User: Fold this.
Amino acid sequence: MASRGNFSGRIGFIAAAAGSAVGLGNIWRFPYETGENGGAAFLLIYLICMVLIGFPVMVGEISIGRNTQLNAFGAYKKIGGAKWGLLGYWGILSAVMFLSVYNVIAGWAFAYFVQMVNGTLSATKNFGEHFTSQIADVSDLFFYSLGFMVITAVIVSRGIKKGIESASRILMPALFIMLLGLIGYSFTLDNAMEGVKYYLIPDLSEITFATVYNALGQAFFSLSLGMAALVTYGSYISKKENIVTSAALVTVTDTTVAFLAGLLIFPLVFSQGLSPSEGPGLVFVVLPGIFAGLGTLGPIIGAAFFLLLCFAALTSTISLLEIPVTFLVDEKGYSRTKVVIFTALLVFLIGIPSMLSQGAVDYFSNFAHYEGITKTVLDVVFDIFSDVGLPLGGFLMTIFIATKWKTANFNKELAIGNEGYMGSFMQKYLNFALTIFAPIFLGLMFIITVLKKFFGVNLF
Ligand code: TRP
Assistant:
């Protein structure tokens, strides 16, 4: 299938898959989740979830993609028949819905970057109010979200090697360098060490069921699991590659970036005597205030930070858009450019209610009521397609491997490009994790979460 294109090799795949993983999830979501769930205790549980669940599920998805060399739907259908093809459809639908809201938040980051550069943000007196009015400003929202989607579409239309891979190769290292530079700076501030302690010394009494549930959701969000994203990317890697090593590198890169984002943000928050449990506004409310207090350097550091956030988000929106695009190109044979324009536009339109749900339109802003709080459309979409949907997608994928594809075939695929795999500790570990531990754990989490979220039943 030469016409589908391929990653140029190991590094190309890793850069693109890491680019998909590293995103708003690491820099925007991870710090506020950590700040709301007890700091270091959350970090600890998060790391455990990465090793025990995240990494094996990632290996599972990539191996299905490479084995079939097909899009999410085609891959499940080829091995499992029409019924399992539905799981592919679910992945594609999740990606579309997820991207529709993800792009809204990417638009906020884009707006903040521009406002850092042109000085609007530095002139602001009250950052909480600024954030509230910014996310309700209809014309800005349209402009920045649409802008972000257009940039994404242009890159995806250039294809796997020229578009996705080369963008990731430049953006990913740039992101690392900016992050390290900012951390170096944040450590020089007064009280920075208080933040480091909060982040690194766990208080185990903070661990509750909610910690585990949130950490697992964060792991899926951050590693791009559960929506067949990595089945799609896996379909573009060659049989020479070692899947286990590649997945390990992607997991480590993603975890490192999230870890570094925390190491940047908590010293900043504590140096200003602020609270780490600000919620989703953490990055948008707390940080601009901190940058404003830094004198002449403030706007430069602030602009670098929001640029970094945009880069991280861009490599993810690219990969999210690629999921439905690969599907339509593979299955329907339409031209890539046409498919890209159509899908990007569709996703943008689907995202409009979410975009207008942050204060712009009352109906969308007070859309539903559960878990004891009022939910916006944006919350509802993330609840269904991220918090509940991703672990569900992961669960079904593990059931697929265990009962349909069979562990032996999974192992055979992994042994290609990895000579010592058969009989190794890694083989035993992955087999146990994917076919016993993950299905039980994810299945239970799914049931408990649905009961808790939508039926108000708290088992823990
Ligand atoms: N992992 C991305 C982040 O941390 C978000 C994401 C979830 C994603 N699923 C994806 C990106 C699928 C690309 C493809 O922000």
